[in-house]
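Hi everyone,

Forwarding the result from last night's run.
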Amino acid sequence: MIIGTFTTIFVGIMDAMNLRGFSNVSQRRKALEKSLNIKLPNISHYSLDEKSAASKNCENMVGVAQIPLGVVGPLRVTGEKFNETFFVPLATTEGALVASVNRGCKAVTESGGTITASCRVGATRGPVFYTGNIRNEQRLYEWVKKNEQKLKKAAEGTSKHLKFKKLMFRGLAEYAFIRFAFDTQDAMGMNMATIATEKMIELIEKGTGILCISIAGNFDTDKKPAWINFIENRGYKVWAEATIKKVSAKEILKTSPEKIYDVWLSKNMIGSAMSGSLGFNAHFANIVSAVFIATGQDPAHVVEASMGITTAKITKSGDLYFSIYIPALMVGTVGGGTVLATQKEALSIMGIVGGNEGKNSQKLAEIIGGAVLSGELSLLASLAERSLASSHKKLGRGENSL
């Protein structure tokens, strides 16, 4: 009902503006300019493949929104299957962000680099079924467990690049929720997961007579902060750690390990607990969103990645052990926005364009982990040295010569 109402309103607006029916981006933009009596010279200036973008990435396309792109690095990352130095692209409109992450990269790299690890959990989709009563809920659960291999076969029949991993079943009163997880290799995979889940739902409904209310029942949980994604994870879970030498803290970060530790404890731990935060970090979302926009990820999935935890301690030698954990990072190097020309170029900066049997998306996840660690470290150092306001005044207001 809500979707139908929204569609009616949207169509009415488009009709009123005489934009419906235009298949050409330029014609649609000119009609918009005429209807609103404005000019859009910058929105109309771009180099991407208009036909492809308008058919695969954006409906009713009238142009592009350009965002400045910077790079940070070199950042030394020792992953589970690689040991390389990267430049990482960040797309942002927030002055001081790139400079701060870049400073963190320098401190990390000069201290030996960051060590990363990751685990592919998979894309998830969680439909909700109406059972009517708890006996039917039990019957549904028993059928699903008994026929899990049939469900797996149905799911994997939808794509040669998708593998069914596991399911989780939960019931409450008249409703039952099933959370399916899929390995989608180098694709972020939500479209693949949705198509596979639809096939499984058809099998379940036929086998039990119990109907699915919605293919997405917020048990995924997709693009929303939720403890289930923190506990059960989603996409990739990623760890990164580094030991920052005292000399690097002093010369590059302009503070000491002890002061960074104090800010971390009071802000990330106690402050987060006091506010009831779902994340115990300083600003994971800043770095994740900048990489996402640069490389064509779905920006809405930043919300899951923002729930991570930062940890810190002073070592016996007086250095700073620093680590981050991202419990749910949804990324890919094929499909979606990664096919756009500029986003593909951004991925090429890190050497991870296209598919590689799941290795590229996992590598991207670990690079993001290293970048998040660097950005987190630099911000906490800035807070420790009380330079946050002056840095934003200098870099965020254009009061510099860069």
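The first strand starts at residue 69 and ends at 78.

Cheers,
N.
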